[in-house]
């Protein structure tokens, strides 16, 4: 994911970055973007309507939706080519966001430069990782794909220390990075020479997880502070990604010869729920509880993806998979943590 989504994931952008960003929020790479809404777009906190569902319920729902996304990809590829699965996913997700934008009366960006940046972001955060995960799951189990998605915060931390001047390496973050990649080696069974592992499929899943932080850093450098709400950016972004797949899919996958019901429903759910609705839920969570709490959904996705793959699809699970996944999540959490004393000092 994020693409459990990836995270899942989706691939998807967050909102509600404060007008004066805190160091901890600014350096976070576990959320799909760091764009800021237009001043006054969200209104004062006191003026917002209280959501009908408690944020914890929505948090749990988002974890389930993104956790089951890898299972849905696997089911979708049983009836459709990977590019067809990705196109359907983006199409259904775009339709959901188009309705949300119409209801909220969000306006599309007018600046040509913004559309050019959104085109790049659509490829890095949607078209490329979604397609890579779909192709990866032709040869690897959905459980492994979900765990590979959990490496996104590790890739993000490593890249942000190079690409973002405010992200300074600390012993805590470097230790978390090393611990996380030790977990990856455990999942892959490095001590036994990666025996029984499909190298191509695993490499595609890891590359997909790398696409997300590259895209997040790009968006942060180009669209942060653009004055547009996140919904007015992510909607067009998904639309552009859909067009990108609409051009690629006929060339490499052709058109479906049939539309089997179960795979079709899986693709529809993957797009409408895992890509469209999930973005709206995350949008609300970040606005209500902040990015630090909202990003914790990242650590539940591989757990749910693994449980779904084993329980529903009957995928096998060796001891090193859950152990390695736990080490990966511990390392990712360590890279995102901040010393208490330092945090209090910065707050004052």
3D structure, described in words:
The structure is a single chain. This protein is an all-alpha fold and 348 residues long. The chain has helices at 23-26, 55-67, 69-76, 82-104, 112-136, 142-149, 152-163, 171-188, 199-222, 230-252, 261-289, 291-294, 301-311, 320-336, 340-347. Helix 4 crosses helix 5 (112-136), helix 5 runs antiparallel to helix 9 (199-222) and helix 8 (171-188) runs antiparallel to helix 14. The longest helix has 29 residues, at 261-289. The radius of gyration is 19 Å and the shape is globular. The model is unreliable at 1-46 and 342-348 (pLDDT under 50).
Total strands:
0
Percent of sequence in beta strands = under 5%
Give the helix tally.
Answer: 15
Give the oligomeric state of the chains in this entry, treating copies of one chain as homo and distinct chains as hetero: single chain
Write down the overall mean pLDDT.
81
Largest sheet: none
The assigned structural class equals mainly alpha
- Give the overall shape: globular
| Parts with pLDDT < 50 across at least 5 consecutive residues | 1-46, 342-348
Give the ordered list of helices and strands: HHHHHHHHHHHHHHH
Radius of gyration: 19 Å
Our measurement of the CA-to-CA distance between the termini, rounded to an integer number of angstroms, reads 36 Å
Task: Work out the helicity level.
Answer: 55-70%
